[in-house]
Amino acid sequence: MHKRALGAAAVTGVAALALSACGGSSPTTPSNTGAAGTSKATTSGTPETPSGTAAPVRDANVDLVIWTDADRSKAVQKYADQFAAENGVTVKVQISTDTRAQFKDATKVGKGPDVIVGAHDWLGELVQNSTVAPVNLSPDVAAKFLPSAIAATKFNGQSYGVPYAIENIGLMYNKDLVPNPPKTMDELVATGEKLVKEGKAKQVLSQFVSKVGNAYFAYPYLSAFPEGGIFATKSNGDYDPNKLIVNSAGSVKGGEELAKLGAAKVLSTNVDDTNQDALFDTKAAPFMISGPWSVAKAKDAGINYGIAPLPSLTGGGAMQPFLGVQMFYVSSKAKNAALAQEFVTNYIPRKDVQLALFEVGKRPPALKEAYDQVAATDPDVKAWYEAGLGGKPMPNIPAMNSVWGPFGQATADIIAGKAGAKERLDAAAKEIAANIAKG
Fold first, then answer.
1. What transmembrane ranges does the database entry give (predicted)?
2. H or E segment at 231?
3. DSSP letter, residue 269
4. What is each CA distance from 341 to 81, 123, 258, 328, 335, in whole angstroms?
5. How far, in Å, are 65, 135, 311 from residue 113 at the CA level?
6. DSSP assignments along 163-207, one per residue
């Protein structure tokens, strides 16, 4: 998965699965550190950049501190400046490179930021560690967002953030080689093998697998079958950490599909984040399963690409990807909770803010009005959104941290033919259950 999509804990278990962030820096001198309420209070005007691996250092004189990654820092800074000017307060934006871990540590000692920008799947862990506060988004404002985006901000029925983007994987295809996208995996394989035989391609499909596996990319194969997946869901739609289904009958069928594709050399553990894009961008593979983060490289390579939903699997249905939602959180120990809530609930839901953040990563905006505007002129955004229809938000429960490594490795072993699907998924289920029990 792309480096921004999951949290740091997931990266460790999935070996460069690809996700998000916070780092160290030397404190800069703000242009004005006046107290809240002074008419000339402002921000430093430039995001504070990290120069090492330590967490950003909070200036105790600043009213509102926001941690974000480097990509979004300029957009966040622009609106932080506006917020500071309109409210007569000081605001500092700090670039962090390991937000998930360092926010927890800094908050425990009262030196953390007031607001952070991060992935929704961090939520359960942040709530468990008592580091984030519920966000008071009014029902009428919440209704202005895409339902899947709002759903991802909730944990145990309580909302903890305001979303600004949605991302998911889909099927990218070379339109010069494949004018119309395949509807089924069987069709994809047949088309790809024909192109390889004709010398127009070197392999059928480029998909991140790696030697240690990639749970994010493997999950859709399980989701195509009834009751296939990772965790069952409760009656209210929440994931149930007590009902692991990675070795359910449906999941095993998905595993068998992975085994079949591995045996046919359609999927390979030799493909990972170091070469996945290159295989598609050099026309070695006519198909690639990836996300919005791969578009810029394809454009630079001059590929005439298309974007479509993931194909369906024989005996099952359409492969459904996880949805990743990016959002703004409020710290449970914010220096000025009311100020932090004001910024997150009244600024982030604005269309201009959502559009500015969209320009950074080109992910479909979470706000309906912003999405509709972008989708009307950007076919890629519309295609990515449609590729995610029917998908569920990635589990944001703490138990998910126990899944990434064991499940990813199991799928890699199945693809490599080292073990049968049922045998390997049974073993993974035992390992994951043991990890969850350890807490």
1. none
2. strand 231-233
3. T
4. 16, 17, 45, 10, 11
5. 5, 16, 42
6. EEEEE--EEEEETTT-SS--SBHHHHHHHHHHHHHTTS-S-SEEE
Interior angle at CA 107, CA 106 and CA 111, nearest 5: 60
Amino acid (one-letter) located at 373: Q
Residue 148: pLDDT over 80:
yes
Both structure tokens of 194: 């024909």
Strands, DSSP E only, in 44-149?
64-68, 91-95, 115-119
Task: Please report the domains of the chain, with CATH numbers, ordered by start residue.
Answer: 8-167+323-393 (3.40.190.10), 170-322+395-438 (3.40.190.10)
Q: What are phi and psi of 118, to 5 degrees?
A: -165, 180
Q: Mark out the alpha helices in 273-367 (DSSP H runs).
A: 276-281, 295-300, 337-346, 351-361
DSSP, collapsed to helix, strand or coil, labels residue 287 as: strand
> What proportions of the chain, in percent to the nearest 5, are helix, strand and coil?
40, 15, 40
245 has pLDDT over 60: yes
Q: How far is CA 194 from CA 148, 177, 282, in A?
A: 38, 11, 18
Does position 14 have pLDDT exceeding 60, yes or no?
A: no
Q: What is the pTM of this model?
A: 0.87
pLDDT digits (tens, 9 = 90+) for 406-428: 999 999 999 999 999 999 999 99
Instruction: Give the pLDDT of residue 47.
Output: 79
For residue 239, give the H/E element and its range.
strand 239-244
